[in-house]
Write a structure and sequence with these properties.
alpha/beta, Rossmann fold, single chain, 8 strands, 2 domains, 8-stranded mixed β-sheet
Length: 329
Amino acid sequence: MKRLAILGGGAWGTALAAAACRAGAQPVLWARDAALVAALNERHENPVFLPGIALDPAIVATADLTAATAGAEAVLLAIPAQFLRGVLARLAAVIPARTPLLLCAKGIEVASLATMSEIAGDLLPQAPLAVLSGPSFAAEVARGLPTAVTIASRDPALARAFAMALGSTRFRPYLSDDPIGAEIGGAVKNVVAIACGIVVGCGLGDNARAALITRGLAEMVRLGLRKGGRAETFRGLSGLGDLVLTCTAAQSRNHALGLALGRGHTLAEALAGRRSVVEGVATAAAAVALARRLEVEMPICEAVDAVLHKGVAIAALIERLLRRPYRSE
């Protein structure tokens, strides 16, 4: 795979284009915003989502989906989870049916409770699918800082092909044959990160944050197993690795949102002025609804959903969590 179409002109799509260039691929980046496309092509910078980071001039951007995908040997989708279905519907009309897809968004669709690969399977049933997940802040990937990720597919040859297309000494893909596990890990960690931000914002201490990370991992594993994932996946980069990064780093959008909520801001105030999507907000509602459908207990995710979408006070939910019955780990 050399000619790659990368859909999504946000921070993550731009960072993946930078990684592809370092690997020797030829990425074409599709973005909706004509002004952003012009900046990418003329200034070799994404001033909206990755300001101040110089990009390889070999990255070509376009607002024309047909032009972006013409001749592409594979398509990478860095589209926010709640918008993926619409883009895939457009994509199905302009690419050959068996063009490989790498799904790079993390989330669960609210309307259908489907993972990204399940949505792609519905709309492009003949396309070979792989999932990219793991601890990877876009700005660090774009700068060329060392990063390790998971590329998961039920087709090992496809996972290897994507690893060769993107991998370098600075961007190291590890392979998995458990895409569902990788997707559930990538989705649920954003919700737990909001909870950890709330804990920090409320001044509840590092002990409480460590407990939340640990119990959040347990929730992630329970949901992942019920969806057909494997327990060992959640001990890897797309599970524990991504969870630790998102729950402890200041640059995590989800952690920052929780921090603002814990300090007394409303959700509207915490989201004001943000250009990048905070995936955990929608995923909280979707993960809880999916857990109820599958009869999986997820009290931390339920608490985050209650704060975000049901107007429940943070103090009351913290007290409720702390009063839960003692149980075996």
